[in-house]
Queue: 4 jobs
Job 1
Amino acid sequence: MEEKASGAASSSAAMPRAQGLGTPKPGNVEDPVVLEFADLRNMADLSHAIQQAYGPDGLGILVIRHVPGFVEQRRRLLPLAARFAALPDGVKQRYEDPQSHYSVGWSHGRESLASGSPDLHKGSFYANPLVEDQLRPAPGDQLQPWLHPVLLDPAQQQQQQQQQPGSQLHTASGSQRRPAAGVVPPSWGADEAEQARLRARYPGYLRPNVWPQQELPEVEGAFKGLGRLVVAVGCLLAEHCDRYVAARLDIKQGALADVLRRSLNPKAVGACSRHRTYPAALRPVPQARLLHYFAPPASHEAPAAGAAGGPADDHQQAWCGWHLDNGSLTGLTSAMYLDAAGCEVGCPDPAAGLYARDRHGRVVRVAIPPDCLAFQVGEALQVSSGGLLSATPHYVRAARGAAAVGVSRNTFACFMQPDVEEPMTCPAGACTRAAGRTGAAGPRCGAGKVQQARCAGWYSRQGVPAEQVAGGDLATRWSDGITFGEFSEATFGKYYQEGR
């Protein structure tokens, strides 16, 4: 990936390591920008790496290595995706939640592919990794993920452990100590009637978690362990993205990061609720997804593994069709491939995996090392950054060939996103400055701030028909000032088949 100067004011900090993982490989494989976790935690100047990954010539994805505990948490959770998917259909159906648009618990065959047919290639288990119910307190909820132990230096950890009873104490897992049972703190705000209204208005986000406690009780702990770690690291990355955008637009530093903090921290919500029409209530809304891509049947033995195909052929062979993430940041693990016995194996097809289309129309396979945590930009961050950081179309290509038969793909994604009633607005001045400079948000369309959205026809000029990108054009679902909840419901309507 070509490196470009960031154009920001220089920092006294040494330039952190932001190189690719190794030398360029033949074919269409691209190594993403790599950040060291220590540089992220120490708030080194990462503006060069942010632009390299998320800017006009980036793939919209970067990876972070040496995150403490990540390798172990990934290895603990991903095999459970295959174990849950192997349960009898009748058991799995008990963990479906139609009222959430199948965005809580088990979902299989509920999403639509670009062709309009149900997506039967994968099954997903959704949950909020921070809290059990976004509108009700529960023991063990983690309300301030940026205080996760991996983010604190030894002195901070000691200070946290020495806090006196009654203060805002966090446990070793990073969760805030809750009041006694039956005591609802004022920060939760919403009464029963307001809770019912919010659940009815935003069913895709404000439904309580469900867990297979009887069949696989270990899922909850493993899911929360990895999910909370991902969110914690994502909070750090959001701070760096915030720095990058604030240095280039006339906005106050912290504006972007506060969007996520308001969706995670009840005190921040109460302090920043001037745009809201409801009491300051806690609604931590990150949503995590444990994915199981079912093993290809024997009919997938042809064409051979690694065989090249045109765009239409690739689309037919997709495990997950072209789409964009609609939140702010998406944390991703690399895939774990398992055989029919549940044993880990290598990827059976060198052409299988995650593909992205860069800003110049190239389709490349993105290599995520198993010891690295990846982050993609979503549409909400594209809007709030005025197009300086841009979401990238991506899809997952299925494995093919005889070696792929009986081999499943398992992975984990955590979607960090704004509060459901957070306004999605472009920064002032972004229309004439950011879009024209980066070109990352599509062409100018003469429609004021809406030009930050991808215009109709942009995908086709990049070789991807708009109808092949799930959710359609951003401009058809977003207008300046719409809330994230309204935007998400419009997106859910594109992804899911109602009444299935």
Job 2
Amino acid sequence: MKRCNFRHHLAAPVTALLLAGGLSGCHITPTPEPDPALSALSAAAHADVSVLSGTDPRGAEARERHAAELDGEIRRLCGHREDGSVPESCDLPQTTERDPSTGGDPSAVLPGSAEFIIGKLGEIPTESVPRVARMHAELAVLAGTTPDPSTAVREMDPGSGVGSVDVDAAREALDWEYSAIYGLGVAQAWADPEVAEVIGRSIEGHRDLAEALRGLLATVPDADPPVPAAGYTVASGAETPEDPASALAAAVRIDTDSALMWQAAAGAAEGALWRTWCVLAGSTSVLTAVPLLDAAGTDPAAAGLFDLP
């Protein structure tokens, strides 16, 4: 078998992407107020806790954590006085009533909250997007499903394209998906039969995303979608598969890096539709990674997929 390297030059450390445009302190205005979109997401998270606490402890724990993170983000953005205190105008009302559209059905709560996040993505502050993207990914894992990115974006705006400011980002993301498909193919060749089957399903997931991205770029004049390269180089610190154990480790890293790449891309997105596409692609990638993480005996949370930057 011909041995090939599988990472392209685009496979830069994801942590660098996440740190770019890092969070900074806020200047206080004369009458600061909580961000309305984040406040709506916080209220939904608090309401979810009250509904799920008796029926879904894991979901309730996740939403309680999300509520606390959102409350902290709202206060950080709202500002503080020189003595460190938060102005009274930044206080958040604690809403515990669930949106009646769910009918109080616990099984509808998490999918409904994920959908609510998507509806608010165009309104939340750019620097808060990576946090919210990871919350959405966790909801997708807990619910076991997430919408197809292209379908969801078309429903938002049937005539939408990527938008000129996001074409380069979409091209880079497509190149990343090509590298992931290539790398997973190398890992699959070294894996045990059972794991190879799981990797095969992951490859199909990445092919689906790549095909959707090509279709999205096809709507933009002169976008010039990239084609797969002949080969890819190994990212710094990554191990080339050479036995079943290293093959599984490489596949897990590729899938988790892909999810983190999409979450970082969402944080850098300037257009609301492309931001939505990236968040949904990130959650799709997390769902794709779950079977491989299970094979490796790793919980998605332990892999850092839900860590809030």
Job 3
Amino acid sequence: MSMLLNFTPIRTLSSYSPPLLLLPPPSRRSLLSVTPKPPSFTTRHARGRIHLPLPRAFDSDSDDASAAVDNNQSVTTIPDEEYPTGEFKFEPVTGFRTLLVKLNMLFALPWERVRKGSVLTMKLRGQISDQVRTRFSSGLSLPQICENFVKAAYDPRISGIYLHIEGLNCGWGKVEEIRRHILNFKQSGKFVVAFVPTCQEKEYYLACACEEIYAPPSAYFSLFGLTVQASFLRGVLDNIGIEPQVERIGKYKSAGDQLARRTISEENCEMLTALLDNIYSNWLDKVSSAKGKKREDIENFINEGVYQVDKLKEEGLISNIIYDDEVIDMLKERTGVKTDKNLPMVDYRKYSRVKKWTLGIPRGKDLIAIIRASGSISRVESQVSVSSSGIVAEKFIEKIRSVRESKKYKAAIIRIDSPGGDALASDL
């Protein structure tokens, strides 16, 4: 089962993405609702948050839930100031903590030692897992990538970050999280440079968050906007005498359309168009803001078709057209390394083994449990399936209950990276 439980102090919660589900311990749930028995939901009202009894399904009394706001009956308002924003704020290590960090580095284990003035290099390409990787596993890990950005911001041995970005095979949610950590890292005042030999929308979305973007003369850029494709097999099945029978509830359920239809349905087209419009609108806003240009100018430039790297440089969308070794020579000059010496660099895998406490990153006493689950959802584990594949409801429920019953966790964050699966298992 692809599920991992790890923990983080509350004070460093900002280094993670917004929670998908936040579970307060049973001892504090009475503070979140007017009455202790029924659950509650939150709605916005004025400058605070109002907690109302959650209406029950198929209950005629649920229509009166919204009336509680107007009549102010049994309503508790909690000011927004009491809720943490979750935004990262870089606080330099000063005073006694500086001495403590130096002592930690002096007695650090061999695999945690990094030369002073080193540049952290990370190659962001291919698939990015939501699970924490072990030292023996290959591939990129989203938690470790984000943690490396946080550690590098505080590490006095790291002078900056050099990113190789190409061919990402992950969702927009992961891309957005990595981009946010790039922006957080820049608060430390250290440089972050991107090199992009191949670039589409996702790659450029990450690269434009960096201070400088470099590309080789032969770089392949394809910024044409967003597209979505779908294949339909009904015609093939009809030709061989097979009639598919698909059951579905709801007109926007499109999982069986590949077998049951010859073309895309209007509802599915509407849904995919709304998703693409939302992603593309956000892409235009962030890119135009990062490059100091008008949104209309970026959109018109994309509509013209971006094929040549020279055109990107002319428009100010990349910093320069140079090769990787030229970028390294430029970083040598920036970090004060002699031209006949090698640039001290530490790669993603080695730096992932550096512990936070070595760098003096503040750690709170209270713990938040982070439960990570990825893969398709099923009720029970199949006898032929690999133990690390998919989300098994029985094990997932057991993990959540163990965290809920434990007294050392103040809350839990559940991160789910799944294409879907068994509806009953998801409900349980």
Job 4
Amino acid sequence: MSLIFEVYQIALSEEQIESITQYLKKIYQSGSKFHGDSLAALRTEQDKIQKRINQVYDDKLDGFVD
């Protein structure tokens, strides 16, 4: 099986390049924000669960739970 590649050259104005660059930066920032927000939510949930585990453990040690 042979692969055929065609190469095209396109010319973009400085304005088009700037527009594309800004668009790509916006997409990247949006993805980064989503990632950061998701990570923060997961850490909050993890902390909540760990707090519950610690409380149950303390209750067990104190004899409140058999």
